[in-house]
Specification:
Structural class: alpha+beta
Oligomer: single chain
CATH topology: Ribosomal Protein S5, domain 2
Distance between the termini: 25 Å
Strand order of the largest sheet: 1-2-4-3
Strand content: 15-25%
Number of strands: 4
Shape: globular
């Protein structure tokens, strides 16, 4: 995922979490709001209790790859914050990817935004 497509500042994370809509799945909590820039952006965060830094970095890398495969950043209508849940470690990569795909489609079908 390009740096252009990442939410990186704490202020932007907080704004999306407090003003956006929320969906929850098995492995992720998903906050989304209409995109502010030309391309959609995604921010990924997870609690420190999930594991050591090596584990958290691996999970973030996997999640970025899932997003890269599932999202077309030019046409996706939202900026997104993904919070990884503890259940992520129990499920396989394929199951986590399906969970993320369900959340992405649920968000695009939401007519209230």
């Amino acid at each position: 995922m390009k740096k252009l497509n990442r939410v990186r500042k704490s202020r932007e994370f907080q704004k999306l979490i407090h003003t956006g809509r929320k969906k929850a799945g098995e492995s992720f909590v998903f906050y989304y709001a209409p995109k502010a820039e030309e391309e959609a952006r995604i921010g990924i965060t997870l609690p420190g209790k999930i594991g050591h830094a090596v584990d958290r970095n691996r999970i973030k890398r996997q999640t970025r790859m899932m997003c890269e495969e599932l999202v077309d950043f030019k046409t996706y209508p939202f900026d997104v914050i993904l919070i990884v849940r503890f259940r992520y470690k129990e499920l396989s990569y394929a199951d986590n990817k399906k969970s993320l795909e369900k959340l992405l489609t649920k968000a695009t079908m939401d007519k209230r935004i």
